[in-house]
Amino acid sequence: MALSLDREAYYRRVKRLYGNWQKGEDEYANIDAIVVSVGVDEEIVYAKSTALQTWLFGYELTDTIMVFCEDKILFMASKKKVEFLKQIANSKGNENANGVPAITLLVREKNESNKGNFEKMIEALKGSKNGKHIGVFSKDKFPGEFMKSWNDCLSKEGFEKVDISAVVAYTIAVKEDGELNLMRKAATITSEVFNKFFKERVMEIVDADEKVRHSKLAESVEKAIEEKKYLSGADPSTVEMCYPPIIQSGGNYNLKFSVVSDKNHMHFGAITCAMGIRYKSYCSNLVRTLMVDPPQEVQDNYTFLLQLQEELLKELRHGVKLCEVYTAVMDVVKKQKPELLGKVTKNLGFAMGIEFREGSLVINSKNQHRLKKGMVFSINVGFSDLINKEGKKPEERTYALFIGDTVLVDEDGPATILTSVKKKVKNVGIFLKNEDEEEEEEEKDEAEDLLGRSSRAAALLTERTRNELTAEEKRRAHQKELAMQLNEEAKRRLTEQKGEQQIQKARKSNVSYKNPSLMPKEPHIREMKIYIDKKYETVIMPVFGIATPFHIATIKNISMSVEGDYTYLRINFYCPGSALGRNEGNIFPNPEATFVKEITYRASNMKTPGEQTVPALNLQNAFRIIKEVQKRYKTREAEEKEKEGIVKQDSLIINLNRSNPKLKDLYIRPNIAQKRMQGSLEAHVNGFRFTSVRGDKVDILYNNIKHALFQPCDGEMIIVLHFHLKNAIMFGKKRHTDVQFYTEVGEITTDLGKHQHMHDRDDLYAEQMEREMRHKLKTAFKNFIEKVEALTKEELEFEVPFRDLGFNGAPYRSTCLLQPTSSALVNCTEWPPFVVTLDEVELIHFERVQFHLKNFDMVIVYKDYSKKVTMINAIPVASLDPIKEWLNSCDLKYTEGVQSLNWTKIMKTIVDDPEGFFEQGGWSFLEPEGEGSDAEVGESESEIEDETFNPSEDDYEEEEEDSDEDYSSEAEESDYSKESMGSEEESGKDWDELEEEARKADRESRYEEEEEQSRSLSRKRKGPAHSSSSRRSSHSRSPGRSSGPPKKKRK
C-alpha cells in the first residue's frame, strides 16, 4: 500500500515557514536559503532535521536533502522517495499557486557521485537572495558517504552557515488542531499506562514487600505498552516510549530526563517516576512521586509543590515571556518557603512536540521567547536533596519530590493539563498500618478489659492468644471509644447552636380589599346573593344582611347537599384549633381575634311564580366557582412554596470551545416534562448544562454539587451520573436536590414469546453485542468523568459505589441495593434516589435484631437533631455483620436493640431539653443492658464464659439432680435467686470452703428445728435460713464431685 501524504498540511506548513522567514525576525533575517540534509543514523532519536520532515510530510525521509530558496524548493532523494514526494509537487501550469515556490525533485543515484544534482542545488542556493548565508541545523551531523560528499561540496563553495534551530523550533512549536489531537492521545496513553500499570505494580510491590530493581520495573513499563489494554484503543505499532522510564528512590535522585533507572532495589519512601509516550511521532510526558507512609513534613512540602505547579499553570498564557513565568514561580518560593529556593529544579519545563525537548524553549530565568496559544509544554517542578528528619536509615534521610504534566497554552486562562493523572497527597500516598503499633494497641485493650474481672474469667482469658480476639470484640472496643466522642461532640455542638433561635413563621395574612371602594358593585351583592370576585380571589357572602368579603385562603372546604325542597351550602373556615394541613401548624397572625368557623346557606329548589330560575341556582354556581378559584389559588401557593428557600445560583459560564467534555443520548431524572426526553450533558467553565432534544435546559453548577456519583452498569440495567445538590434547583415547576442522567444498557424487557434455545446463535450474538455496548458506554462515561475532573482541577470528584459492600433494604416502598461510597450511602438506580451523607450522620441504630427474625431495620440519626431520622426497613440479617464492619471502619457509632422505638418522640425530647438528655448519659440509653460501662463489661464477660466453659459429664449429672428436685414454694425459689446472685466475696470461694459452709448451715438448721418444735411454734419454722439450708444441703449430697462450683449467672 502506497504511503499517502497530506498535501494540504504540507502547503499550510511550508507557507508558515516561508511567512516567518519573510518577516525576517531573529536568525531568519541573516539567511539567504535553508538547507536541511538527513542521513541514516539509528542512534539519533530526536533531530531538528527529521522533526521538520515529520512536520511537513508526516514521515522521516533518510538520505534526503531539502533546499529552500527564495523562489524554488529542491528535494533530492532516492527514486522511491521521489515517487512519494510527487504527491506534493506542483503541476506545470499551477506553479506558485499555493503562495509557495515550486518544487523540483532530483533523483539520487546510488553508485554515482551525484555531482550533477549537487551542482543544480548549489546554483539554486547562489541564486537565492544574496546567495552567501545558508541556514542549517548545526547540531545535526549524520554519518555516511552521501552526507560527507554533500557537506564537502557546500564547504568548497564557501557558504557561511547560520544555525536556525531556534527560529524553526519557534515556527513549528504552535500546534494545529490535528497535531493537538495526536498529543492529547499520547497524553491519554501515558496516563493510562501510569494509572493502570505502573501505580498498580508499585502497590503490589509495597503490599507484598517485594524486592524489585528500578531498572527491572522500568523494563516492565516498556513491555506494558505492547499490550493493547493500556493503550486506549491505539495501535501498538504507533506507540513508543519517548525515553526509557526513569524510576528513582532510596536517597539517589537526579531530576533530569537524561538519566537512566539504576539497578538499586526500590525503597519504600519517595518513589519518583518519569515516563513519556510518543504516539504517531508526537510526544507527551508525565512525572509523579509516589510516597509510602510520608511524614507530615514531607506531605507539607509536597502540597507546596502542587501549589507551585498551580502558579506555573496560571502564568502559562499567550504573550507572556518564559523568563517571566520562571520569575513568578520563584517569587512564590521566596515569599512562602525561602529555605527551598536552592532545592528547586533549575528549569520548570520545556516546549514539546515531535521532539521531546525543545532546547530553545526552556522555562528558565534567561529565555526571552514569548508563549503562543497552541504551544504544548512539558512542565516539571521538583525539590531535590530534601532532608527527612524522621529518617533513620541512610536511604530514608534524603528524598526528592518531582511532578510534571503535559500542558497546552491557552489564550488567557491557565494552561490546560493533558495528562489527567490525579496528584493530591491522597492519590499518590500509600499509607500502611504499622503492625507493631496494632499489636501494642490490641494488647493494651486486652489488658484493660481484663482488669476488674473475676479470677476465673481472667484465668480463662489469659489462656486465649491475642490472635483469637474476634472481629466483634475489636469492633466493640472501637465502638466504646466512639460512644464517648459522640456524646462529647454532640454536647459541644448543641451548646454552640444554643444562641441561634429559630424564627417561627407566621401564616401569610391575605387581605381581600385594602379599602371599601375596591368592593365590586354587582347586582348579586345588592340582592344578598353569594358573589365570587375572581380578580381579588374573594367570596362575598351576606352575613346578617351585610355583604361580607372572605378571602379564598380562609376557606377550608365547602360542601353542598340537597335535602327535600332545599339545597344547603356549607362553608368551613380555617380557625385556631382546626388542623391547617400536615406541616402548617396552627399559626395565625392574630390568634386572639374572633373567628367564624362555618356558615351554612339554604335556598329553595322550588321555582317561585314569575321567576325564571330556582333560588338554589345561586348556591350551585357559587359552589362550582369557589372550587375553581380555590384550586387555582392552591396551585399558585404550591408553586410559590416550591420556590421558597431556593438559593439563587450563579449564572453558568458557557465555554464556547467545541472540545468541551460532552455525553450524548442521556435521559434526565426527574423528567422535565410528562414524557421522558433524551438530551446531551456538557461540562462548561463552572457547571454542567443538560439540553434536551426539545431545547429545555437544566444547569447544575460545580459549587452546588455535594456528591457526584458514577454508577457503572455492572449488574445494572442503566449507567448513571447522579448529582446530589447542596441547594435545591427548580425545573419542571418543582424543586429538586437530586438530578441524574442515565442511559439504558441492553434490553430492560425480554420477549418471552420467542422460543429460546441455549445455543441460539441470535441470542449469543445479542449477548456479545450487549457486552460490547456495556464496555463502550463505561469507557465513554469514564472518559467524560476524567475530563471533567481535569477541567475542575479535581475540585469535583466522582465517587463510585462499592458494590461489594452493598446490602438490600427498603428506604422507601420497594427493596433496592444500597451501596456505600467513600462519603455516602446511596442508591441511584431506583427512583426516588437515596443519598445519605456520612459526615451528617450522628449514629446508626439497628432495630428488631432478634434471632428468630430474618430481617432488621436501620435508623439513621443525623447531627442536626431537628432533621427527621431516616429508616431503612427489611434488611436481611446476613448483612448485619458486614454493615457493622463498614460503619466501624467509617468511625460511625452504631447500637442495636430488639424493639422498634418511637423516634419522633425521642427526637422531640432531645431537642426540647438537650442538656438534660446528655446529663442522663446521652445516647448510651440505646446500648443493650442499659447504660454504663459496667453493664457492658458484665455482658462481655458472660459471653466469654459461655464461649469457653465446656461442661464435663459430672456437670451434666449435677444438672439432672438439680432438675429432679422440686422446690417447696415460690418464696424459696426467689430467696435462692437472691442469694445465688451472690456478693463479690462469695464468687471467689473455692469448692471446699463452700462444702464446709453448707455443712455448718445444715447443723444450724437442725438445731433451730429442734428448738422450734419444743416451743411448738410451727408457723415460724419456715424461713429464709431453712430454704437456703435445704438448697445448700443439696450441694452436700454429692461430695464425690470434682468439678468447680456451680456457675453463677451475672445480671
TrEMBL record:
Biased composition (Low complexity): 1025-1045
A biological process from GO: transcription elongation by RNA polymerase II
Biased composition (Basic and acidic residues): 986-1006
Record-annotated Histone chaperone RTT106/FACT complex subunit SPT16-like middle domain positions: 807-897
Compositional bias ranges of the Acidic residues kind: 928-974
Pfam families: FACT-Spt16_Nlob, Peptidase_M24, PH_SPT16, Rttp106-like_middle, SPT16, SPT16_C
Location of the FACT complex subunit SPT16 middle domain: 530-690
Subcellular location: Nucleus; Chromosome
Keywords of the record: Chromosome, Coiled coil, DNA damage, DNA repair, DNA replication, Nucleus, Transcription, Transcription regulation
Primary localisation category: nucleus
Biased composition (Polar residues): 500-515
MF terms in GO: nucleosome binding
Region (Disordered): 492-519, 920-1051
GO cellular component, one term: FACT complex
Annotated ranges, domain FACT complex subunit SPT16 N-terminal lobe: 5-168
Domain of life the protein comes from: Eukaryota
Quaternary data: Component of the FACT complex.
Role according to the record: Component of the FACT complex, a general chromatin factor that acts to reorganize nucleosomes. The FACT complex is involved in multiple processes that require DNA as a template such as mRNA elongation, DNA replication and DNA repair. During transcription elongation the FACT complex acts as a histone chaperone that both destabilizes and restores nucleosomal structure.
Similarity field: Belongs to the peptidase M24 family. SPT16 subfamily.
Protein name: FACT complex subunit
